Amino acid sequence: METVAQVSAALTAVLTTAAESAAWATGLVRRASPVTGPRFVQALVFGWLRQPAATWSDLACTAAQVGAPVSPQALYQRVGEPAARCLQQVLGAAAHAVVRADPVAVPLLARFGAVYVQDSTTIALPDSLAAEWAGCGGRTPQGTAAALKLQVRWELCCGTLSGPELHPGRASDHVGELVDEPGPPGSLHLNDLGYFALERLRAWSGADVYWLTRLRGGTRVVDAAGQDCTRPAYLRAQAQTPFECAVQVGTEAPLPARLLAVPVPPAVAAERRRRLRAEARREGQAPNATRLAWADWTLLLTNVPATRLSLPEALVLLRVRWQIELLFKLWKAQRRLAQWHSTQPWHVLCELYAKLLGLVVQHWLLLVGCWPWPEYSLVRAARALRDQWGILLVALRGAWPLEQAVQEAVVGLSTCRRTARRPRPHTYELLHDPTLPVPFRPRPPARRGRKSSTTSTKRKVA
To answer: Which residue in 5, 27, 76, 216 is a FRET match for 425, CA 20 to 30 A apart?
Structure first.
């Protein structure tokens, strides 16, 4: 019930209060009209939540449901720079709203005050938006001048989503409010190598915050005897057996940590070397000899004591980081976040911001409906919500209590669970039993000539 109240309060604060003030501040609304800021925002957000490829006629039908009967042409004419600025401000309010569920019943995660995974994903935009969101450039003449980077942090015990923070595509992963935030004492950060920074790890250790990360190449790591633990000769001397040792990381003000080293099967090492050589070929460089040697090992650094986290458990937690990659996959594949059907730059941004708002709202509903069950399926639950958004539209119009509407919308989500899978267990099964074997499944090679998912075809006004 507490989570239902949080979601109801967040929906009101974001889609009503913040939308009203943003509409007047950006000039989207300049006089009294049936198409108010909240109704306009709700029409686009829920219209694209219902149907990611919704036409203007579909969006006009949704607008009528929220109390703003308007023609598709009239709705189309309102979608421009003021509308995009308004949606961006409302998205910022949603990104700062805090909605948390009851902690998930997973003992390994419950050892920590919070478990954070953070990552970014980049969406290529039309080149005409380069002044708004600068891209990284690239070898291709089109599709690289403009891009939007989304920074997202996901807390896996209570499901709280922080962000998305919006940054230009060329911005570093080390930019933003979320990246340095330590969280409460006793929490754990699981980040990839893009966020590896000794200064940040040192600050987190000083704040009694734990971290677990892969080892970045070129980092100085020495054991108690002063030997470099990352040299291929040092690793070969371990006779291909897992080991861990206390180490000092860095040159100035060395950081105490644990080095965890696990040999991988030959097939895994061969696949890693194949990807390293392919990456080097794309960059026109020779593959790094040290990284090729490291392919035989999984090398981790952590400040979690051995009494709190064993080596097999650390390997399982390393896999947990991929949950945020699955979240991005859900956003882009099922909800078509990186697809639009207009050639107008501000129309593209309006659709993108509205879809992002919808994904935040969708996440809040998932926390209510299926978070207590660790075996739930994000994809199945999001698909089950597709036909339930009309319930919230009626409630936001004032015809039904919003808390009751939230409860009704998520009734069927508790059935959206995964079934046990053999011989390759799910992540939630490994969290309950880290000793389960995980067979290697090679990644299929990328197909050449595959079209980008960020296609832009002109949408007609129905």
So the answer is: 216
> What token pair was written down for 211?
């971290």
Beta bridge partners of 153: 118, 162
Where do the domains of the chain lie?
A: 2-96+337-415, 215-307
**First-to-final CA distance of the chain:** 42
Where residue 260 falls (left for φ over 0; alpha for ψ -120 to 50; beta otherwise) is beta
Instruction: Give the tokens for residue 170.
Output: 């060329």
Q: Which two tokens mark 119?
A: 């990552």
pLDDT higher for 217 or 26?
26
* Rounded-to-integer distance, Cα 218 and Cα 231, Å: 11
Tokens representing 318? 């390393």
pLDDT of residue 449: 42
pTM over 0.85: yes
Using alpha carbons only, give the angle 201, 217, 287 rounded to the nearest 5 degrees: 155
- Cα-based angle 358, 131, 338 (whole degrees, multiple of 5): 30
pLDDT above 60: residue 445: no
Q: Do 248 and 221 meet the contact criterion of CB atoms below 8 Å apart?
A: yes
Report the C-alpha gap between 71 and 462 in whole angstroms.
Answer: 9
> Cα separation of 133 and 168, whole Å?
5
Are the CB atoms for 143 and 169 separated by under 8 Å?
no
